[in-house]
Input
Amino acid sequence: MNMQNLMAQAQRMQRELTKKKEEIDNSQFEGTSEWVKLTINGKKELQSIKITYENPIDNDDKEALEDMIKIALNEACHKVDQKTEEVMGAYGQLGGLF
Output
């Protein structure tokens, strides 16, 4: 394979990687906990948050609610990481080319 063909192939793969990354960035990922449901995008930016806890929240529950938000956010971020690995993992060996 000559250098020109190799460069053309590398450019095609770069375009594919960019397209896949944009698809992930524009996707929505949900995280839930016992009291919270939230959505982030593939850039891990918070899009929405809903408190699903039905009872009034007093001071004792405030710390628990904060923990539930962290749990839900971490779950959603983990989903982004999993999807990124699933979609982009095939290109992992090519990282040194770009």
Notes: The CA atoms of residues 4 and 10 lie 10 Å apart.
